[in-house]
Amino acid sequence: MDSVLKIEGMRKSLGKSLLYTLPMFLITFMFMTGGKPNFADPVSALAMLTAFLLVNILYFLMHYTGKTDRYRAVLFIIFALSLSYTLIHNMVEVRKSMTFSQADILECRIPFCHLVIPMMILPAAFTKSIIFPGSIISGFANISSMVVLWLVATIVLGRGFCSWGCFYGGWDDGFSRIKKRPVIKKISELWKWMPFAVLIMVMLTAALSMMPTYCSWICPFKAVTEFEQVTSVESATKAGIFLSLFGGLVVVLPVMTRKRTQCSFLCPLGAINSLSNKITPFTVKIDKGSCNECFKCVEVCPLYALTPEDIKAGKVSLFCSKCGKCVDACSKKAIHYGIRGIPAGTMKNFSRNLFLFVSFLFMAIFSAGSIINTLQGLLKLIF
Amino acid sequence: MKKVKIIAGISWAFLCLILIIILFPGLNSFSLSVSKLPFMKLNPRYTGGEIANQVISKSCTLDIRKPVFNGFLKERNSGFVQLDWHGTIPDIIKDSIDYDYDGKKDFYVLIDRKNSKTVLEPIDRKVKDVLISTPTSYGWAIRVGLIK
Lengths: 383, 148
Fold this sequence. Notes:
The complex is a heterodimer. By secondary structure, chain A is mainly alpha-helical. Chain A folds into three domains: about 10-85 and about 350-355 and about 365-383, no CATH class; about 100-280, no CATH class; about 280-345, Alpha-Beta Plaits (2-Layer Sandwich). Chain A has helices at about 1-10, 15-35, 40-65, 70-95, 100-105, 115-125, 145-155, 160-165, 170-175, 195-210, 215-220, 235-255, 260-265, 270-275, 295-300, 310-315, 325-330, 350-380; strands at about 100, 225-230, 280-285, 335-340. In chain A, strands 1-2 form a two-stranded parallel sheet. A two-stranded antiparallel ribbon of chain A has the order 3-4. Chain A starts with a helix and ends with a helix. In chain A, about 50% of the residues are buried. Residues about 1-10 of chain A have low confidence and may be disordered. Chain B has two domains: about 1-35; about 45-145, no CATH class. Chain B has three helices and eight strands. In chain B, a hairpin with a 3-residue loop joins strand 7 (about 125-135) and strand 8 (about 140-145). In chain B, about 25% of the residues are buried. The chains are: A mainly alpha, B alpha+beta. At the A-B interface, helix 5, helix 6, helix 7 and helix 18 of A face helix 1, helix 2, helix 3 and strand 7 of B.
């Protein structure tokens, strides 16, 4: 009875949930329409309306049901799929293929993504230049705007960026939800430090070779975005690595472990974002007084961010991406969203409401363009 | 002290809320400011280097860029020079290039655009091979490998 009451403590009445959704409704309306909805093109209007309703219904359900992760994951996965669709669609339309050519590199036309950022740091510091064949300020996915988006999101959300802002994370998040039970249950804890090793390796190799080595040789998401034209043994090897890593770390292992293995074991940006968890105001807290040490949270955590020792110590590790899976799973509501400085177990609703508004608003606006674009593409196929 | 921590935490959280709300409307101006930072320029290994000389013929222009030897902490022993042809380019490009402006030709290049064939004849010992030869949106570009 006690646990039921506590679960219901996160839920809100219909009226209260609608009231909490109203600011999101107004802000997303302003961003998606620019304040002036355009009904001249019915397909665009329908796509915009669908995206707008999708984000607001999901946000409403977060408040109404008191559950976070299941509705976050819906938008997060749609974001990943729609961004890949948008990128591939643009490339096929412009270049007639998913590959980029030597001319695209020479003319610096490669879209920039946040995974390049770790490799930019040393060359930017020592050579005062960026080692990427993209555009600094103009065009789609330019370097400056992606750096600003990532920087602000990382300061605000910390590693929450990996569950609320990264347009690749939805891929392994999606695959990790396919099976009800994991086939592989135990993976050594040591592997979660691997992203730091990858981070150091790519930072050094990128600086020494003056090339974004992770993008050129490792990034699994090249398989669903763009990659170099296969014209030599080297480019064929690269394509093989991209596809193998995507198949292994983004598809097979997440299905078998129910964990986000690419994010946990490979992503160098995830390592930087983990460190930024130290400055963000939003955290996940453990109220030791309420915790019955069932370790359900440890079991469901998709990023190996929780261990029984962490729970006993009442601290969440720096790997936490604030996805909310542990928060939803805790029957005692002992693990909850919190704000730095506020003691665990207090102001739970206030902290959750503020965190959800900030994180969901970022994801909703960041994803809106690609979701609308994808819906337009799908609607044009139908009509 | 506890109250101060709580107030500081909540203030920081609200500041972050404001940051997220102004992020998207202000993205263009924030990006423009970031693009003006001293390190926000593409490395010459990607841009091909500054244009050092232009050779203008009847229908097309050849840009000869500065040789690029950029490295992380110091210049490398190997690099490249990029040449760009733009305008109305003939199907077969034949040029002799003096990339270091010492008055002596350093290499001959022949490009058969229809068959995408590039032949390089080094004259100077510092000229090695063709690294890239590709059609571009403005015409044709090649990168020729160099050593110091």
